[in-house]
Each structure stands twice: as structure tokens, then as C-alpha cells.
């Protein structure tokens, strides 16, 4: 009889070892699929849920919404935000105060250099001796020293403030004036006495080349003040 016509053994007559060998790969495949599913995080065990951190005044970073907070955590967040708001208000108040003080002391105060400069310019424009030399007061302009930067619009005013041996402050200022006829230099020397808080003129004069000096203010030296004491040929001040 041909080998192709031989009857095949049925599964009922197969040996137990053969049945175990046929079913083993399927068991391994099912186990592998289960392990892969667990590795992807599909499990619903307690280890897959991260523990939520408590919100305090120092640890609140805004990660959680307001509705997710407990009553104590809401109080902590409100306290933190109130403290931050107070800090911002205090910083803004200090900044505004500093800016206002700087503007007043440098621009609007009668003791500021800018105020004294504007006052000296007005004195020059109001003096007929100065306008006769410089020209029409409406065309006279005042400016400071020239700088190396040709693009600079504002020229600084040459000003120095120093104290003498008696503790009095001296302010010296020079600036230029130019009119349709001539141009010149204005010299300002002011002193602040010890018993006063205002500047007083020691000298206010206009120098124009080819003309005599025009003196608008010149303090007279008081008797006994500024005179040197001479003993044994040595002058003591």
C-alpha cells in the first residue's frame, strides 16, 4: 500500500507528551502578551497613581488649580499671594519716592545746579548791558561745554562744588552765551553760608572778547574776613 494512503493517527490516540508539546508555545505567547500589557502601564494597581504633594505657603508653585485645593491649602495660597502683592507695592513705592527725590534735588530745588543755571541765564537776558553786547534777547542762546561726541544734543554745564576751610560750600559754574552780535562766557561763583541753606552770589559776570567785563553780582568782602594774619613774616589763614 502506498505511503500516501496510510491513515493518520488521531489526536485521541496521541501520546500525552505530544499534546504537551503542541500546547506549550501558545501558553508562552499568552504570558508574553500579559507581561507586555503590564509594562505599558495599563494596570490599575495602586502603584500607578502618584502621591499628591501638600500645598503650603513655602511650597506652593501654582501647579494645582484652586478647585483642587483643600481649605487649609487655599488659606496658604491666599497668604502667599498677599505677601507677594505687599512686596510689589513696597518696591513700587520706594522707586517712585526715589525718582521724585532725584527730580526735586537735581531740577526743581532752588539749591540744584539746574535751577541756578536757569536763574543765571535769566539774569543775563534781563540785563540791558548784556543784550547790548550780545544782541536781541530773543535770539540769545545758552549752552554748556562742547563734547567729543558730535551727536550729543545736550552740552554739560561745567560746575564744581567744594568746601573751604570753614566748611562753607562753594559752587562755580561756567557756560556759554551766543547772540546775533557776539558770544561770550558767563562766570558764576556762589557760596552757601553756614547759617543758611541757600546759595548767595559771590560773582556773576559776562566776558565777551573785545568788551569790558560786565559784572552783574559781586559780593563785597566783609571786614576781617579773608584777611591773612601775618606773624613773623608768615601768613596764617
UniProtKB/TrEMBL annotation:
It holds the Pfam family TIM21. GO terms for cellular component: TIM23 mitochondrial import inner membrane translocase complex. Coiled coil: none annotated. One of its GO terms (biological process) is protein import into mitochondrial matrix. It is a single-pass membrane protein. It is found in: Mitochondrion inner membrane. Its main location: mitochondrion. Keywords: Membrane, Mitochondrion, Mitochondrion inner membrane, Protein transport, Transit peptide, Translocation, Transmembrane, Transmembrane helix, Transport. Gene3D superfamilies: Mitochondrial import inner membrane translocase subunit Tim21. Component of the TIM23 complex. Belongs to the TIM21 family. Essential component of the TIM23 complex, a complex that mediates the translocation of transit peptide-containing proteins across the mitochondrial inner membrane. Required to keep the TOM and the TIM23 complexes in close contact. At some point, it is released from the TOM23 complex to allow protein translocation into the mitochondrial matrix. This is Mitochondrial import inner membrane translocase subunit Tim21.
